[in-house]
Specification:
The protein is α+β, with helices and mostly antiparallel strands. 25% of the residues lie in helices and 23% in strands. It is built from three helices and six strands; from the N terminus they run βββαααβββ. The strands form two sheets. The protein has a four-stranded mixed β-sheet, covered by helices on one side. A hairpin with a 5-residue loop joins strand 5 and strand 6. Helix 1 packs antiparallel against helix 2. The longest helix is centred in the middle third of the chain and has 18 residues.
Length: 119
Amino acid sequence: GDHGCEYMTAGRVVVLGETGRNFGAGMSAGIAFVLDETGDFPGRCNPEMVSLLRLEDGDDERGLLALIRRHLGATDSPLAAEILSRWHHYSPLFWKVMPHPPITTDDRGTVLARHGKTP
């Protein structure tokens, strides 16, 4: 549906199906991995709230694979089985969605801190 991960404050989410519009609006923490088979996911997320990255390293892939395997074990999902059997095809289609870092400003809008560090 619309506004996926709207109140997400921690954890990991894997989306293997379509998303609605405004994905990530209100997402304050955690990570979402979204399969984008049609190539139009960037237009359905909220760029003011989240950043989109491709899988960055082995840790991303290992964590995502573990979650998909867990999903397959719990549901016998044909799509999860297909993704796991053709990982080299599907892995470039995933987006890693992360919320922008929190920013603290003063009354004039001057940035005082990002991620708890002074600018």
